[in-house]
Amino acid sequence: MAIDSKYQQKGLGIKLINFIQSYYYKRFKKIIVGTQSNNKASLKFYKQNKFRIFKTEMVFHKHF
User: Fold this and answer.
1) pTM of the predicted model as reported, rounded to 2 decimal places
2) Fewer CB in 10 Å around end: N or C, the chain?
């Protein structure tokens, strides 16, 4: 999930999370999100919205 920086801190992230949870509530038992471990703002956002860290892994990207 990503919110353009000019639209952050306006409540759109929580609205999106709430929509996803209500829309998929009957179909799925959990929602998994990913973020970088050094992205403190993202980690704080997810923790404030009842997500928890259940796995960490290293992912390598190659940009061309």
Assistant:
1) 0.75
2) C
